[in-house]
Amino acid sequence: MSASSSSASPSSRSSKLPPFDPADPLGVDDLLSAEDLAVRGTVRAWAADRVLPYVAEWYEKGELPGIRELARELGEIGALGMSLDGYGCAGASAVQYGLACLELEAADSGIRSLVSVQGSLAMYAIHRFGSEEQKQTWLPRMAAGEVIGCFGLTEPDHGSDPGGMRTYAKRDGGDWVLTGRKMWITNGSVAGVAVVWARTDDGIRGFVVPTDRPGFSAPEIKHKWSLRASVTSELVLDGVRLPADAVLPEVTGLKGPLSCLSHARYGIVWGSMGAARSSFEAAVEYAKTREQFGRPIGGFQLTQAKLADMAVELHKGILLAHHLGRRMDAGRLRPEQVSFGKLNNVREAIDICRTARTILGANGISLEYPVMRHATNLESVLTYEGTVEMHQLVLGKALTGLDAFR
């Protein structure tokens, strides 16, 4: 029997194909379980109800009102520290955490930053490197959103080179005394606990710092043109005295904070695609209704070329994020691969937003649409958790074996 006679005809095969879905052109949803889809649906519905109706006003005013209430609600849906196990955390998969990040950033990068700093930085540091007493004290309340956390690594003069930090912790009898400053700290002025990294005579160590300690202050940073619907602060540590057991016992050196940053960067790989998706969807809807020269601009070849290119990069980025998530779930995700994802997806997300702005024309700069808000937010996302240049050098070293950092 010939191959042609034993197989269905092309027309019969094509008739069994699912319809093309413009929202999921690569069929990536086929890779998701029912539980994955349920997690995504829960976070998407929460963001649609609690963020999207208000975020343009928050952004315009440069504030995030009701952040403590929002944190408690995020705790109720299991979004805080959701990929961690035990201590009230959801124990979700890496893919599920990524899907949550995408939906949160589709609403606004500031909301995703709130969740990422809480779960992937502050809670992750305590969960991975903390004592059992530290975990029991802080993680259940942080998972519930009852306590907001922040993560103090970046300093005014030391961003990409955290090894040069000046914040110092010295022993004084049985106590530690912390002195220094941290800069660009998300959640800082509303945090109940800060994970602060400092130099000691024994190397860089992490400290769990209740923010009500004398000498601790967190003045909020104003006049931002990016991440305006987010709380950003400086941390000032003026002789903050802590007991001996405030130190994270399970790590010494930069591998501690850098492993936390790698976990947070993974969330950005997904989250940036949320901002891109929101802007792309706005451009598609606008192109179908905005008329020039007697017909919708979506019917012109140049506009369709833009939309096609945007869709290709958006869904390639989502597929990359999904691949990295499966590797993380399998315990096989390397930091260099996270750098690959962060470098590619944030750059492409910004380009998608800028292209969407051109399709919307002058309306693209209006807060009636999400495009410019996402574009300006992504300028911060491009820089924090490692700049473009740092991730290029991480990959360059991995590709050549040669260290170009110094």
From TrEMBL:
<dbReference type="GO" id="GO:0004361">
    <property type="term" value="F:glutaryl-CoA dehydrogenase activity"/>
</dbReference>
<dbReference type="Pfam" id="PF02771">
    <property type="entry name" value="Acyl-CoA_dh_N"/>
</dbReference>
<dbReference type="InterPro" id="IPR037069">
    <property type="entry name" value="AcylCoA_DH/ox_N_sf"/>
</dbReference>
<dbReference type="Pfam" id="PF00441">
    <property type="entry name" value="Acyl-CoA_dh_1"/>
</dbReference>
<feature type="domain" description="Acyl-CoA dehydrogenase/oxidase C-terminal">
    <location>
        <begin position="253"/>
        <end position="399"/>
    </location>
</feature>
<dbReference type="GO" id="GO:0033539">
    <property type="term" value="P:fatty acid beta-oxidation using acyl-CoA dehydrogenase"/>
</dbReference>
<dbReference type="GO" id="GO:0000062">
    <property type="term" value="F:fatty-acyl-CoA binding"/>
</dbReference>
<comment type="similarity">
    <text>Belongs to the acyl-CoA dehydrogenase family.</text>
</comment>
<feature type="region of interest" description="Disordered">
    <location>
        <begin position="1"/>
        <end position="22"/>
    </location>
</feature>
<dbReference type="Pfam" id="PF02770">
    <property type="entry name" value="Acyl-CoA_dh_M"/>
</dbReference>
<keyword id="KW-0285">Flavoprotein</keyword>
<keyword id="KW-0809">Transit peptide</keyword>
<dbReference type="GO" id="GO:0050660">
    <property type="term" value="F:flavin adenine dinucleotide binding"/>
</dbReference>
<dbReference type="InterPro" id="IPR009100">
    <property type="entry name" value="AcylCoA_DH/oxidase_NM_dom_sf"/>
</dbReference>
<dbReference type="InterPro" id="IPR009075">
    <property type="entry name" value="AcylCo_DH/oxidase_C"/>
</dbReference>
<dbReference type="GO" id="GO:0046949">
    <property type="term" value="P:fatty-acyl-CoA biosynthetic process"/>
</dbReference>
<dbReference type="InterPro" id="IPR046373">
    <property type="entry name" value="Acyl-CoA_Oxase/DH_mid-dom_sf"/>
</dbReference>
<dbReference type="InterPro" id="IPR036250">
    <property type="entry name" value="AcylCo_DH-like_C"/>
</dbReference>
<dbReference type="InterPro" id="IPR052033">
    <property type="entry name" value="Glutaryl-CoA_DH_mitochondrial"/>
</dbReference>
<feature type="compositionally biased region" description="Low complexity">
    <location>
        <begin position="1"/>
        <end position="15"/>
    </location>
</feature>
<dbReference type="InterPro" id="IPR006091">
    <property type="entry name" value="Acyl-CoA_Oxase/DH_mid-dom"/>
</dbReference>
<feature type="domain" description="Acyl-CoA dehydrogenase/oxidase N-terminal">
    <location>
        <begin position="34"/>
        <end position="146"/>
    </location>
</feature>
<feature type="domain" description="Acyl-CoA oxidase/dehydrogenase middle">
    <location>
        <begin position="150"/>
        <end position="240"/>
    </location>
</feature>
<protein>
    <submittedName>
        <fullName>Acyl-CoA dehydrogenase family protein</fullName>
    </submittedName>
</protein>
<keyword id="KW-0274">FAD</keyword>
<dbReference type="InterPro" id="IPR013786">
    <property type="entry name" value="AcylCoA_DH/ox_N"/>
</dbReference>
<keyword id="KW-0560">Oxidoreductase</keyword>
